[in-house]
Amino acid sequence: MIVVLTGVASLLIAVLLTGAIRKLALSHGLLDVPNARSSHTRVTPRGGGGAIVLSSIGALLALAYAGKIQGSLLGALLVGGAAVAAIGFLDDRRPIPAGARLVVHLGAAILAVAWVGAPQVSHVGAVLAVLAIVWSLNLFNFMDGIDGIAASEAVFVLWAGALLLLITGGSPSVAAVSLTMGAA
């Protein structure tokens, strides 16, 4: 029940924050102006992902408080997620070279795998996990430039992953995180 309530709360908070962040972006000129590489044709406010980040942080903290996720998973998601969100926000404000973003993504992925999974997997498995995380982050960043596709893909992947975890008896903690972050 707490997972459902947390998911609903994270959805409502994300909706409210999206409107507030949109107004802020418009008032501060934080806009994505279409160019030859853009998939959109209209000027679009940037920074909407901040609503998802903030509501997800709240959901993660609520799930941890309720004892639904372990501290190692919480730490990996908060610290790694904050690093990725921060570099994304800074890149929205002023373009950051791909190499610098890659270093942050690699660091966040290494931290997450070390914090959560390294003791249970081989060195090859850990390297593959880091590469998969970095690849996913960059794929998601590419999709983020296509209006609506990143959010819809995130919801599908998170909820499908949660369903698979629940059906197969996988980690209830990761399923709870997936459900609530998908709601955000």
**How are the strands of the largest sheet arranged?**
1-2
Q: Estimate the helix proportion, in percent.
A: over 70%
Instruction: Note the quaternary state here.
Output: single chain
Compute the number of structural domains. Answer: 1
Which structural class is indicated by helix and strand composition? mainly alpha
Task: Give the topology string: H per helix, E per strand.
Answer: HEEHHHHHH
Give a structural overview.
It is a single chain. The protein has helices at 2-27, 49-65, 71-93, 98-117, 123-144, 149-168, 172-183; strands at residues 31-32, 44-45. The chain has a two-stranded antiparallel ribbon. The protein has one domain (2-183). The model has no long low-confidence stretch (mean pLDDT 86). The two termini are 17 Å apart. The protein is mainly α and 184 residues long.
Summarize the structure.
With 184 residues, this protein is mainly alpha-helical. 76% of the residues lie in helices and 2% in strands.
Write the layout of secondary structure elements.
Layout: H1 2-27, E1 31-32, E2 44-45, H2 49-65, H3 71-93, H4 98-117, H5 123-144, H6 149-168, H7 172-183
Antiparallel strand pairs: 1-2
Helix pairs in contact: 1-2, 1-7, 2-3, 2-7, 3-4, 4-5, 5-6, 6-7
Characteristics:
single chain; 184 residues; mainly alpha; two-stranded antiparallel sheet; globular
